[in-house]
Amino acid sequence: MRSTTTPRLVLTALVLGVALGCAWLHQQSLEAARNWPELAHLRVPLLVAVVAGFLPVLAAVGQLLRLLGLVDAGEATSPQALRALRRARRSVAVLAAYLAVGLLGFWAVVGLLHVTLLLAWAVAEVAAVAASTALGRAERACAASLAQRREVQLTA
Fold first, then answer.
1. How far apart are CA 132 and CA 135, in angstroms?
2. For the chain, which residues make up each domain, given as ranges?
3. Are 84 and 66 in contact (CB under 8 A)?
4. If you count Cβ atoms within 10 Å of the first and of the last residue's Cβ in the chain, which end, N or C, has fewer?
5. What own/partner pairs with CB < 8 Å and gap ≥ 24 does 95-102 have?
6. pLDDT per residue of the chain (156 residues) written in tens, 0 to 9
7. Dist CA 77 CA 74 (whole Å)
8. What is the spatial distance between Cα 11 and Cα 148, in angstroms, rounded to a whole number?
9. Rounded CA gap, 16 and 35, in Å?
10. Pick from 80, 18, 23: nearest CA to 53
11. Are the C-beta atoms of residues 50 and 25 closer than 8 Å to each other?
12. Exposure letters 114-152 (e unless 16+ CB within 10 A, then b)
């Protein structure tokens, strides 16, 4: 049986990256408010909106850590594992939708959209859609394995 230590470390690093990113974004928002005083009133609402976007990421990480616990327990193709995969996929899909709506909302409210912001959004959107797709494929594989396991139990 393979160890789940490396995936756990990667997920933990992702959570730490999110926490550090939130702290960095706070500092950047203060600097942006100083540089563009006409947009300073939007600093807190935009910061809250961006930080709220990290919630689906944290929910997905929690479900993936739950899945890794099930893998360690030998229950990789259990209904609980399927549920964890489904919840993780849905969380990432929510993130992808939030990113799309967030970009349009930012553009509508601020009226500015620099090419670097558009590029950063595109990278995040592609990553979220790819992760959601990968989780969907894993979910289907788990569901097929679970169905096959149930069929074998019925015929045994």
1. 5
2. 5-155
3. yes
4. C
5. 95/53, 95/56, 95/57, 95/60, 95/128, 96/125, 96/128, 96/129, 96/132, 98/52, 98/53, 98/56, 99/53, 99/124, 99/125, 99/128, 100/125, 102/49, 102/50, 102/53
6. 568 999 999 999 999 999 999 999 999 999 989 998 988 888 898 889 888 999 999 999 999 999 999 999 999 889 999 999 999 999 999 999 999 998 888 888 878 788 888 898 999 999 999 999 999 999 999 999 999 988 888 887
7. 8
8. 30
9. 29
10. 18
11. yes
12. eeeeeeebeebbeebbebbeebbebbeebbeebeeeeee
- Tokens 């929510």 label which residue? 94
Among 72, 71, 97, CA closest to 85: 71
Cβ–Cβ < 8 Å for 9, 61: no
Contact 4, 68 (CB under 8 A): yes
Q: How many CA atoms, within 13 angstroms, populate the side-chain half-sphere of residue 95?
A: 28
DSSP state of 1: -
Structure-token pair, residue 121: 């959004």
Q: What is the pTM of this model?
A: 0.84
Per-residue tokens: 50? 């961006």
